[in-house]
Amino acid sequence: QPSHEWSQKDPLTDFDINARGTLVLLEATRKYCPRAIFVHTSTDKVYGENMQRHVLENGTRFTHYETFDENTGLDMAMRSMFGCSKTAADIYVQEYGYYFGLRTACFRCGCITGHRHKGAEEHGFLAYLAKCIREGITYNIFGYKGKQVRDQIHAYDLVNAMYYFIQYPGIAKVYNMGGGEDRSVSIIEAVDLIEAETGKKAIVNYVDEPRKGDRIWDVHDVSKFKNDYPEWEYEFSLSDIIKDICKES
Please, are residues 173 and 106 in contact by the beta-carbon 8 Å criterion? Predict the structure, then answer.
């Protein structure tokens, strides 16, 4: 269950899917297949507002000179009901590694995207933005002048990272996984890139008030994973990602 907004409406179902569902799978693994490798797609939303930073503003984006690593704190931060259920799942995945010795990993992802990404207004902004521009749908930008920044990782690169972990697994590993600075983009920068790729103009509506808990700047430090798995490399640049999500079919 990936939506912040939806989780506020039905937190019990959100918890059952994200937290209890993960626990059921962990317990099944422990009882029936303890040598299996358990890879959990977590989220950077476990950090909540601890990922907020003082930023600088320029013409098209906010900037900061510090990416987020795995030492970012989990405590004393608002994170949404979705963030809470994902944090519970994340901690359980680690504990089944520490306590039971299962080979587990949490990949704390930022924005995952790609050609098949069914983006919606509530989440997956880049794919949804591409859909809106292709189909002439009004895209709402909430706060920060559209200069808020997210790094993007293509689903192929994420799954490939998981593949490397599966070949050489550890116990209770935690990795931040995003596109890094080279694949970071603001909303208004993304509008320009997608307009250029599609040849169509965006219809944009600016809403002054940002979404509750929204981040101005969200770029990941993936050096821990790269140090553990130096043969892994990105296959998709930001330009490649834009081209991929703008395909018609």
Answer: yes
